[in-house]
Amino acid sequence: MTVTRFGSDSLFDGGFAYGSRVPAGRTLFTAGVSPLDAAGAIVSPDDPVAQATHAVGLLTTLLAEQDSTPADIAKLTVYVETADRGVIADVWRAVEAAFDGSTPPAVIVAVTVLPYPGQRVELDAVAVTR
């Protein structure tokens, strides 16, 4: 199965996709991919950029276990614990780099608090399985 990403001729072209179209099939919804290590500890406490990179890696692993890949992501949500637009921009650049030029349609949301002390980033995604 493939995900077809699309933009719009009528909306501002910020260089990113506004949405995805997926064929009928199995849809995969992930929840709360946190930047945790194998022992359940937060990776790089209070470093949102490092946590974003780590969380994308974990999401990639989770997708692979479910017969999916980052290319199969139809929608990505990035949560960042911050009120600083500069931090949001830094996290966005890290996410784009982690997806190596193939960032899925995504939204980045600033939140007040995340579950773990030192946690600054969390991801969830909608993808398709092959």
UniProtKB/TrEMBL annotation:
Q: Which SUPFAM superfamilies match?
A: YjgF-like
One Pfam entry name:
Ribonuc_L-PSP
Tell me where the signal peptide lies: none
Provide one Gene Ontology cellular component: cytosol
What would be an example GO MF term here? deaminase activity
| Domain of life (superkingdom) | Bacteria
Q: Which family does it belong to?
A: Belongs to the RutC family.
UniProt protein name: Enamine deaminase RidA
What is the native source organism of this protein?
Gordonia spumicola
